[in-house]
Amino acid sequence: MKPVTKMGAVVLVLFTIGAFISPVKSLDNGLALKPTMGWLHWERFMCNVDCDTDPNNCISENLYIQMADVMVTEGWKEAGYEYVCIDDCWPSHQRDAKGRLQADPKRFPRGIKKLADYVHSKGLKLGIYADLGTFTCGGFPGSMGYYDIDAQTFADWGVDLLKFDGCYMKWTLLGEGYTNMSIALNQTGRSILYSCEWPLYEWPHHQPDYAAIRKACNHWRNFADVYDSWDSVKTILDWTADHQDVIVPAAGPGGWNDPDMLVIGNFGLSHAQQESQMALWAIMASPLLMSNDLRDICPRSKQLLQNTRIIAISQDPLGRQGYRTAKVDSFEVWERHLSGGRLALAVMNKQEIGGPRGFPLTLATLPSWKICHPQCNVTQVLPSYKELGVQTLLSKLVVVVNPSGTALLTVTPI
Ligand code: GLA
C-alpha cells in the first residue's frame, strides 16, 4: 500500500487550514439548520405532462398526494424525510388576470393551496419550483418581473420551499435576481426554504461569490443535473472534490452545497453504487432529496435510504461539510468532522474490475487516524453494520470495500 499521494497531502493541508475559518454568514431565516430531507420529482418523473396515457407518472396533484401518503405509511417521514417537492412543469402556460402563476388546471384541478393543505395534514411540507428568468428550463412561465407577486402567491398557497432555477436569464444578473427573490420571500413573512441554482449558472463565466450566495440561499446547486447513472454520480463527486477548497467553507447550518438529488431506488446504480451515493451525500452534508418512486421501491434501497446511522451523519449538528482527503491505490478517502470530536470516514473503491479489496486504516493511509491515539472506537456503518471495537494507532484494521462501493465508518476518540 502506497502512502497518501502528494495531492492527497496538499488537499489535507488546505483543509486543515479551511477547517478553522468560520463559515460566512448564512441566510437568516432559521431554516435548513441541517441538510434538507425530502423528495423531489425531477430526476425520476421529469416533464411528463401526459396524464391521458400515463396518469400514474405524470406531473399532477395525484403524484404528490400519493408520495405524501407513502412517506407517512412507509417510514420515510419517521426517518426524517419531510419535504414533498414539485419541480418544473407544474404551471399553466398563462398567468391569471392578476399576473399570478397558476397550476395547470387539468393536472392540478384543486390547485396548489389545496395540495399544500393536504401535505400539511400529513405533517409534511410542500416545495415548489420557479425560475428567475423569462421561462423555466422546461419552457413554462418564468418569474422575471414578477418576483414579489410570485413570492406572495407561494406564501398564500402555504408553500414551504422554493427551488428557484436560473434558465433564460443573463448570467450577469444572476446575483441581483437570486438576492431579490430571497428578499421577496422574506417579505412575505412566511418561512420558505430557498433552494438556488445560482453558482451552477455562474461557474461557466467566473468563480461565484459564495459569501453572497450563502447570505441569500439555504442551499445552492453548483454543478450539472444528476442522472440515474454511476458516471453521473462519479462526475458530481469529482467536481466537488476538485472545487472543495472553494465550496466546503461556505457550508454550515442554514446553507449547504447541493450536489443534486439521490437517485437511489431507480434503475441505473448497482447496490454498491447506491451505498456510495448515500455515504458520500452524508459526508458532503448534502440535502437528501430523493428522486425515485416511493410507491414502488426495492426493499434494499429503502433500507439504505432509511438507515438511521447514515442519516445521523448527514444531520450531524456540527454541520461541517466533509471533503476528500486522499486518493490512493484507486481508493478515495473522504472525511467529515462530527460533533463530539468524532469523525465519519468514507473509503470508496474506485477500481471497477475485480472483487472487494481491503483498505488498511493506518496513519500512513489516513492522517486523521491520529484521533485513535491513545484509543478510539470504530463502527462500520456500510456495507454492513459492525462494531469494530477499540483501536489504537498500532491496530491493523482493514476494511473491505466492494468495487464502486464505499465503506462508511464512524470513529469516536476515547
Ligand atoms: C434544470 C435543473 C433541474 C430541473 C430542470 C427542470 O435543469 O437543474 O434540476 O429543475 O431544470 O426543467
TrEMBL record:
It is found in: Lysosome. One of its GO terms (biological process) is renal tubule morphogenesis. SUPFAM superfamilies: (Trans)glycosidases (SSF51445), Glycosyl hydrolase domain (SSF51011). GO terms for molecular function: alpha-galactosidase activity. GO terms for cellular component: extracellular region; lysosome; membrane. Residues 319-405 form the Alpha galactosidase A C-terminal domain. CDD domains: GH27. Residues 1-26 form the signal peptide. It catalyses: a globoside Gb3Cer (d18:1(4E)) + H2O = a beta-D-Gal-(1->4)-beta-D-Glc-(1<->1)-Cer(d18:1(4E)) + D-galactose; a globoside Gb3Cer + H2O = a beta-D-galactosyl-(1->4)-beta-D-glucosyl-(1<->1)-ceramide + D-galactose; Hydrolysis of terminal, non-reducing alpha-D-galactose residues in alpha-D-galactosides, including galactose oligosaccharides, galactomannans and galactolipids. PROSITE patterns: ALPHA_GALACTOSIDASE. It holds the Pfam family Melibiase_2. It comes from the Eukaryota. Keywords: Disulfide bond, Glycoprotein, Glycosidase, Hydrolase, Lipid metabolism, Lysosome, Signal. Catalyzes the hydrolysis of glycosphingolipids and participates in their degradation in the lysosome. This is Alpha-galactosidase. It comes from Oncorhynchus kisutch.
